[in-house]
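As a warm-up, study this chain.
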Amino acid sequence: KIEILRPQMAGILYPSYPESLLKNLEDLFQENNLKNRFNNKLEASPKALIIPHGGFLYSGSITAKAFSLLNNLSCSQKSKIKNIVLLAPAHQLSFSGIATHQAHYFSTPLGDLELNQDKISELFQVPELSYLDLAFIKEHTIEMALPFIQYVFGSENISILPFIIGECASGSVLDLLELLENLNNNLEKINNYSNVCHKLTIL
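Now compare it with the structure written out below.
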């Protein structure tokens, strides 16, 4: 069991230096705001986002557009979001079920994001869910969302619940989502989950 999962795609799919990464994110969000001059502020926080999980070069602008819906929330609306659920398809390891990680933090060049292990522990009512740290080795789908979360919320004010989806019945994913919905408690879902289009990621 490791305390912190270090970034694996920094320097490959996104910048590895904090200053460069932050500048890249600022440019992506600014580009989105210039292209979309219409008012994209929402009266309420979206229940879920579907985002790409490719590198910044390929899909960073689309991811920034999705996250702008959260970034443009009022301070009071944004402060109500305490946890973000990340669902993503497995690309590296072939396994059955739904995997989560035992680490206490996932790290990026911008800092560490805490995993809400207390809430994760409440989800093991779903039989297909298990700790499988191997599923996260060289897996980019979850990691690609983390810098955007940190840009919008910072690293201190938010925690994450990450899940990699392997081979399993769609009913198991629905069971997990229903249980998350029942827990409620300010959970924001960001989905990286789609193999119909490789670029889609659901947070």
